Every structure is written in C-alpha cells, then in structure tokens.
Amino acid sequence: MGPTVQVTGLVQGYRGRRVIDGLDLAVGEGVLGLLGPNGAGKSTLLRTLATVAPPLHGHLEVGGRPVRSERTARLARRQIGFLPQDFGYFPGYTVEEFVRYCAWLREVPDAEAASAARKTIEAVGLADRAGARMKSLSGGMLRRAGIAAALVGGPRLVLLDEPTVGLDPAQRLDFRALVRSLDGVAVVLSTHLVEDVAAVCDQVAVMNGGRIVFRGTAPELAALARSGDPGDTPLERGYMRALDGRSAARR
What we know:
This protein is of the alpha/beta class and 251 residues long. 35% of the residues lie in helices and 24% in strands. It has helices at 42-49, 70-77, 95-105, 110-123, 139-151, 169-181, 194-200, 218-222, 234-243, and strands spanning 5-14, 17-27, 30-35, 57-62, 65-66, 80-83, 157-161, 186-190, 203-208, 211-216. The strands form two sheets. A six-stranded mixed beta sheet has the order 6-7-8-3-9-10, sandwiched between helices. A hairpin with a 2-residue loop joins β4 (57-62) and β5 (65-66).
C-alpha cells in the first residue's frame, strides 16, 4: 500500500518569503511526530498537507490522488482531519453541534454524523459537556473539542498541530491513549514535547529551516545524543544534535 499523503519538491511560503524549500515527505499508516523550533515550517507543512494552502511549487497527493485544483482538494478533504494550533468555532454552538458541523464539512453522511459525533466526543472525555456552549469551555476542554472535530467520521489522514497545548497531565495521558487506539490511520503530530513523541509516535521527523533534517524512530533520534549535548534526556539531546545539522535525514 502506498503512502496516505505525499509531497514532492514542496515549496511553500507567504508574502514572498519561502518557509519550505524543496521538501519531500511521504507518510503512511501510523503516527509521525514532527519536531522543530518555532519558525521551522511545521505549521506551514501541516496546512499544506491539509490542502488549506496550495503549494507554490511541487506536488501533493492524498490517498494516491494528485491534488491540483479546488475540486481535487475538496475530494481530498473528505479523508482529512485537521486540528490547527488556533482553530475557529462559533461560540454559541454546543460541543455536539460544533463536532457535527465539522463532520458536515467533511461530508460525513447525515445518517452517520450524529452517532459519529457522540462517539468521538465520548472518546475525548467530553460526553458530560456535549450540550455545553463552546464559549463556556476551559482551554483544555476547547482543545479536546478540537481533537474530536479532527477525528469525527474516521478520516484516513489526521493532522494535529500542538494538540496537547492546554491539556493537564492526566488529559495528555488520555490523548496519548486515544492516538495509540487509532487503527489504519496516518497521523502527523506536530509538537514541542519530545515526551509525547516518545510515547505515541512510530517515527519522528525533525524540521529546521523548512527542511527535514532527520527522520527515523525515537530510539534512533536518541542514539544521536553525545555527552555534553544540551537536554535532560537522550531524546532531547539527540533532537538538539539533529537541529545542529549533525545527522543525516533518513527516509
């Protein structure tokens, strides 16, 4: 089976500034953790994979099909669940209305949308808040509602940008269990938290300067660490070494 999503020769940027320059990436089933400092291009890459921002140059395929127009992008979005760092919502919607609305945007059939929304809301631990207005939720609850919106309807590709921001330690553990429970799904999880990567990711990609400077498993990233490298754990030290350009990207 081929990759669920693939970019080749991707160039992306805004207002004349290149953020990503010539990036190749293929992601299949499983969880890919995307690490990198602020400004590395992680959010830009996720927006491109989500078909929110068309590539300036290069090719994007979702489910083996090229995305070259608004029509093909709309077809691709049926398979994509996307949680940006800052997501919009109607404050007066209840949690259930918000998640059902996101299911509608993904063209989940009406006969399935209600049960799919309830199931996903329960999975993120918000069943008792399903009737609460979005504007009344705490930051952590809002984040969980956003995760539910990304997962509703069982998309084949799930893109999560800093999904554990605002979650307390117990909620982060629940989130990790939820991600590990996803079967037959390609997940790209952008985060600053290397412990989340170690806990849930099958592979890790480190971005810096709009390029992938490392790709491999968490143990392979940790193995880059050397005595004296900054960081509190081998994984953090390996990550810092990768950022310094002292490793070869692996594909």
